[in-house]
Amino acid sequence: MLVAGFPAGSFQTNCYIVAPAAGEECVVIDPGQDAVEDLDALLREHRLKPVAVLLTHGHIDHVWSVAPVCGARDVPAWIHPEDRDLLSDPAKGFPPQAGEVFGGLKLSEPDDVRELADGAVLSLAGLELTVEHRPGHTRGSVTFRTPVEDSQVLFAGDLLFAGSIGRTDLPGGDYAAILRSLAKTLTLPDETTVLPGHGPQTTIGRERATNPFLRDVAPHAGPTRGL
User: Fold this and answer.
1) Cα 103 from Cα 60, distance rounded (Å)
2) What pTM does this model have?
3) Which keywords does this Swiss-Prot/TrEMBL entry list (predicted)?
4) How far apart are CA 92 and CA 85, in angstroms?
């Protein structure tokens, strides 16, 4: 399986492409701010044809470029229904004072938006991706999990980072909910590779052993990384 990515825009949000191999169809995950040019270069490098865009949640740093990417390739976007309204109204994901900053930004839904369901298995581009609803960072946060060789890869969005977890102080955030979501995610095998929405990759085993916010899956104070 081919997985490649890059940090997009000022938020440094990881945008990923996933394909069975070079020269085949692929899916795009979380095309953030100003992602189009770098994404196009990555697709050309690996000779890939996107068939869908998958969104781990609706915050603007993850969906900024979804409409132009989908429009240029005539492909659908997939998002959980709890976050769908953020595609066209990103200010809803921020407190009122921050929302004013994005008030003049005009985003729109792609022409074809499809809704994700917990436990669904998406068969796209020769891949099988299991959708798991993991609310807490936002109401509609999801992860995508796919097998690779004898293990699996988890696209975690802003649920889990290397050494940290997603913030819950923005509208739609819920600290108790993210703890429940993390508890479910930590049942995955230690060797599961975690590709987060920000920062470097990690593994479930490493985070279980070293992440200070996962002690007894009950951190004492929520972090403020990511959007």
Assistant:
1) 12
2) 0.93
3) Hydrolase, Metal-binding, Zinc
4) 8
Q: How buried is residue 221: exposed, middle or buried, by Cβ count under 10 Å (0-12/13-18/19+)?
A: exposed
From residue 134, alpha-carbon distances to 8, 67, 72, 96 in Å are 23, 24, 30, 25
pLDDT digits (tens, 9 = 90+) for 121-172: 999 999 999 999 999 999 999 999 999 878 899 999 999 999 999 999 999 9
Tokens of 202: 């990690």
With a CB cutoff of 8 Å and minimum separation 6, the contacts of 136 are: 159, 166, 168, 173, 174, 175, 176, 177, 178, 179, 180, 181, 182
Domain spans, the chain: 2-210
Which homologous superfamily is 2-210 in? Answer: Ribonuclease Z/Hydroxyacylglutathione hydrolase-like (3.60.15.10)
Give CA–CA dist 204/21, Å, rounded: 25
Single-letter amino acid code for the residue at 65: S
| Helices (H), ranges, 50-103 | 60-63, 66-73, 96-99
Distance separating alpha carbons of residues 84 and 69, to the nearest angstrom: 17
Give the CA diameter of the chain.
Answer: 48
Amino acid (one-letter) located at 217: V
Tokens of 13: 């949000």
